[in-house]
């Protein structure tokens, strides 16, 4: 498995790009660690497939380099990159048995018969294909065929990386859940370098230990699911991750924090100085999970009007109006909805500040 480095990488499908908007991928520099599972997550058209194809060699970037373990592979085709790929739709040999399909990538490389058998059995067991190993692939369901495709991707242990392009698209929703978990277990067991493209946040957050969030041809954050949730480094990550997404409101600097429509929202003291130095349009952000709703008996907070309460089983989404702004609050079903006049409290530890969409950090590294 390999360390993947992207150096000054950019790609435009235009022969003569005139400006940033002509780039499907804007200039980026990243190192993706050996043995980790990365998910490329973002909405349609943000450049995920372009980036995956550049890593696999299906697409040559118009600028920059791709390195595997320090060796440049930018101009090499996929077959010379020692990678495995799994696509949206099954790529298998219908006339072969499941065993022969799984064995194919190993036999192709002259792996010894006993080793082929051992590895095929191991992968088949993990993907629950053991029962059908001797059946012809042609007679199986679409789900089973895609599992074979996944197995063919996972069967070699000597590949630099395994690249997945929305591999669970054709899978039945019920099975999707178990396959996502399986892939995670397989990763934990074999420590494979995996890059997985998806537009589904649940898929990315369950599968990956590092999620690469993309927006308009740029990587806006690489982090663990927890980091993306707790400290989105870009407002796009705040909106895109979480359900509902982060509450984000325009604000200006106040005395002990920021002001939104004349109401003061406190910031942590270490963030205050950075806030004073920040340039650009300021916005304050907080996740619906961290806002607290109270009645007037609790001192402090910002007065709000109740708009709607959506009951979603184990929790409720409460929408309140704070002046002309609307805020979403996620309340556990066990927490009673306060009555009378309502106030919302913004815990400073969970209140984030953004300048021109980028996180203002109070850690002195901004
Ligand atoms: N072969 C191509 N020629 C010209 N433009 C392209 C080509 N392939 C992709 N694009 C454009 O590049 C941008 C990024 O596309 P890409 O397919 O990489 O995004 P994506 O995030 O994978 O989206 P999706 O999930 O819809 O596949 C889009 O604006 C797309 O229209």
TrEMBL record:
<dbReference type="InterPro" id="IPR040582">
    <property type="entry name" value="OB_MalK-like"/>
</dbReference>
<dbReference type="InterPro" id="IPR008995">
    <property type="entry name" value="Mo/tungstate-bd_C_term_dom"/>
</dbReference>
<keyword id="KW-0067">ATP-binding</keyword>
<dbReference type="InterPro" id="IPR003593">
    <property type="entry name" value="AAA+_ATPase"/>
</dbReference>
<keyword id="KW-0547">Nucleotide-binding</keyword>
<dbReference type="GO" id="GO:0016887">
    <property type="term" value="F:ATP hydrolysis activity"/>
</dbReference>
<dbReference type="InterPro" id="IPR015853">
    <property type="entry name" value="ABC_transpr_FbpC"/>
</dbReference>
<feature type="domain" description="ABC transporter">
    <location>
        <begin position="4"/>
        <end position="241"/>
    </location>
</feature>
<protein>
    <submittedName>
        <fullName>ABC transporter ATP-binding protein</fullName>
    </submittedName>
</protein>
<dbReference type="GO" id="GO:0005524">
    <property type="term" value="F:ATP binding"/>
</dbReference>
<dbReference type="Pfam" id="PF17912">
    <property type="entry name" value="OB_MalK"/>
</dbReference>
<keyword id="KW-0472">Membrane</keyword>
<dbReference type="GO" id="GO:0015408">
    <property type="term" value="F:ABC-type ferric iron transporter activity"/>
</dbReference>
<dbReference type="InterPro" id="IPR047641">
    <property type="entry name" value="ABC_transpr_MalK/UgpC-like"/>
</dbReference>
<dbReference type="InterPro" id="IPR003439">
    <property type="entry name" value="ABC_transporter-like_ATP-bd"/>
</dbReference>
<dbReference type="InterPro" id="IPR012340">
    <property type="entry name" value="NA-bd_OB-fold"/>
</dbReference>
<dbReference type="InterPro" id="IPR027417">
    <property type="entry name" value="P-loop_NTPase"/>
</dbReference>
<dbReference type="Pfam" id="PF00005">
    <property type="entry name" value="ABC_tran"/>
</dbReference>
<keyword id="KW-1003">Cell membrane</keyword>
<dbReference type="GO" id="GO:0055052">
    <property type="term" value="C:ATP-binding cassette (ABC) transporter complex, substrate-binding subunit-containing"/>
</dbReference>
<keyword id="KW-0813">Transport</keyword>
């Amino acid at each position: 498995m390999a360390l993947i480095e992207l150096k000054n990488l950019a790609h435009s499908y235009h022969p003569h790009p005139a400006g940033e908007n002509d780039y499907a991928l804007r200039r980026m520099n990243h190192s993706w660690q050996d043995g980790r599972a990365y998910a490329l997550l973002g909405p349609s058209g943000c450049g995920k497939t372009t980036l995956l194809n550049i890593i696999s060699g299906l697409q040559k970037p118009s600028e920059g380099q791709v390195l595997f373990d320090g060796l440049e592979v930018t101009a090499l085709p996929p077959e010379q990159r020692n990678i495995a790929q799994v696509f949206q739709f099954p790529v298998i040999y219908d006339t072969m048995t499941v065993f022969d399909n799984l064995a194919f990538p190993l036999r192709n490389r002259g792996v010894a018969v006993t080793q082929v058998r051992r590895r095929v059995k191991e992968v088949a067991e993990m993907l629950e294909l053991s029962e059908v190993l001797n059946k012809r692939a042609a007679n199986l369901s679409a789900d089973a065929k895609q599992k074979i495709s996944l197995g063919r991707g996972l069967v070699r242990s000597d590949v630099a990386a395994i690249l997945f392009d929305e591999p669970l698209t054709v899978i039945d929703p019920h099975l999707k859940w178990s396959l996502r978990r399986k892939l995670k277990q397989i990763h934990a067991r074999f420590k494979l370098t995996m890059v997985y493209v998806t537009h589904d946040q649940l898929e990315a957050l369950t599968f990956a230990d590092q999620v690469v969030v993309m927006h308009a041809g740029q990587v806006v954050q690489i982090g663990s699911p927890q980091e993306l949730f707790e400290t989105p480094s870009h407002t796009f990550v705040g909106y895109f991750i979480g359900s509902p997404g982060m509450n984000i409101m325009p604000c200006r600097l106040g005395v002990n924090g920021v002001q939104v429509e004349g109401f003061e929202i406190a910031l942590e003291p270490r963030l205050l100085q950075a806030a004073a130095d920040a340039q650009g349009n300021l916005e304050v952000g907080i996740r619906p999970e961290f806002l607290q709703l109270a009645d007037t008996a609790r001192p402090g907070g910002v007065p709000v009007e109740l708009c709607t309460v959506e009951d979603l089983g184990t929790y409720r989404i409460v929408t309140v109006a704070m002046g002309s702004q609307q805020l979403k609050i996620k309340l556990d079903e066990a927490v009673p909805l306060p009555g009378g006049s309502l106030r919302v409290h913004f815990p400073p530890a969970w209140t984030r500040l953004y300048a021109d969409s980028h996180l203002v950090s109070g850690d002195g590294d901004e």
